[in-house]
Design a protein that fits this description.
Number of domains: 2
CATH topology of the largest domain: Four Helix Bundle (Hemerythrin (Met), subunit A)
Structural class: mainly alpha
Distance between the termini: 50 Å
Number of strands: 2
Helix content: over 70%
CATH superfamily of the largest domain: CDP-alcohol phosphotransferase transmembrane (TM) domain
Low-confidence stretches: 1-6, 190-196
Number of helices: 6
CATH architecture of the largest domain: Up-down Bundle
Strand order of the largest sheet: 1-2
Order of helices and strands: HHHHHEEH
Length: 196
């Protein structure tokens, strides 16, 4: 392009986001097998994909490469990877279906709330507990992917401990989002009425 400028989409952070999306079908294929080798490779892939999540956000802010594409597709890539991985873990017997339903259901509900709030010109920012939820989910999924015992550590047990923590924090953060949403919506309604 003229002047050597890349297009808004063709930036390193956005390429990392697209790479994370591309990892999702690979994760699905790997989890079609229940062996120790495929489980280890899947855990490695999930770990690398999660690192790109941290890296693309850091680079976007540091190099001032924040784009509308990144704002929308970065969280979408995360949800896609996490949801696909958790769903594939169900038939392997490594996680309860209701736990997966809670986590995915919360993500869909919060995405819907953000969309409604955004249409009203209000941005619902992530809460501090939401960041903890993400960490718990990451460790839980990594443990459940490894599943087997390594160096005397039962990674499935570790994964389940963090999965329970993730479910609890996921539910709590979802409640906080709903409370914030209704508070904002109520204030908007009051503001609209006062204008008439």
């Amino acid at each position: 392009m003229p002047g050597g400028h890349s297009s808004p989409i063709n930036t390193l952070p956005n390429k990392l986001t697209l790479l994370r999306i591309a990892c999702t079908p690979l994760m699905v294929v790997l989890l079609c097998f229940s062996g120790k080798t495929s489980s280890f490779v899947a855990a490695l892939l999930f770990g690398l994909a999660s690192i790109t999540d941290l890296l693309d956000g850091f680079l976007a802010r540091r190099r001032k490469m924040v784009t509308n594409f990144g704002k929308h597709f970065d969280p979408l890539a995360d949800k896609l990877l996490v949801s696909a991985t958790l769903i594939m873990l169900i038939p392997l017997g490594r996680v309860e279906a209701w736990m997966v339903l809670v986590i995915i259901g919360r993500e869909i509900a919060v995405t819907g709330l953000r969309g409604i709030a955004s249409s009203e010109g209000v941005i619902l920012t992530p809460t501090e507990i939401s960041k903890k939820k993400t960490v718990f989910q990451f460790v839980a999924i990594l443990g459940l992917l490894l599943h087997y015992e390594y160096f005397g550590i039962d990674f499935h047990a570790v994964g389940m401990v963090f999965m329970w923590l993730a479910v609890i924090v996921t539910l709590w953060s979802g409640i906080l989002y709903f409370r914030k949403f209704w508070f904002v919506l109520d204030r908007e309604e009051i503001h609209i009425r006062s204008d008439h």
